[in-house]
Each structure stands twice: as C-alpha cells, then as structure tokens.
Predict the structure.
Amino acid sequence: MDNDNSDKELKYIVVCGGDGCSSFGGRVIRDQIENAIKDNGYEEQIEIKDSICNSLCFQGPIVKTGPKNRTYKDVTQDDIPTIINKTLED
Ligand code: FES
C-alpha cells in the first residue's frame, strides 16, 4: 500500500552563529533574513535557525537551507531574496 503522506517537507534557513561568521556580519544577515521572512509572510513555510561553526569561517557568513541542503557562502544582503525564493522552490 502506498503511504501517500503529503505532509510538506519543512523548509528552513540556518545561519551560522559562530564567531567567524558573526565577525563577517552573520548576525546582521540573520536579522535581515528573519525580517524578510516576516515581511513577506513566509513564517509558516520557512523556519530560521542558528548553527554552530560550519568550519567555513573564512567564507562566511555561511547560510544553509533545507530540505535540499544548499550552502551559501559570503552571503550579503543582496543574496537574501534569492536564498528565500530558492528555499521556497525546494
Ligand atoms: S563561524 Fe561560521 S563557519 Fe565557522
């Protein structure tokens, strides 16, 4: 029997909260992503989380998204719409 569980996969954006990424503006990026999610009414679709260091510190801020496990490096404010839209599409 086919178990057609149509529960949507949880989409999430994880911002590295380690010291390296934070020194490159990771916390500001996190706030900007959170605000963009709220401003666009995507709170029900995308969860924002924090992670510990991903060992990619010199390429930070690091942002990862799921469920497709994408990794974005050197994230700037200009990247945020793309990251959110891609996460919604995944
Ligand atoms: S602090 Fe973000 S990858 Fe190390």
Remarks:
- Confidence is low (pLDDT under 50) at residues 1-6.
- The longest helix spans residues 26-39.
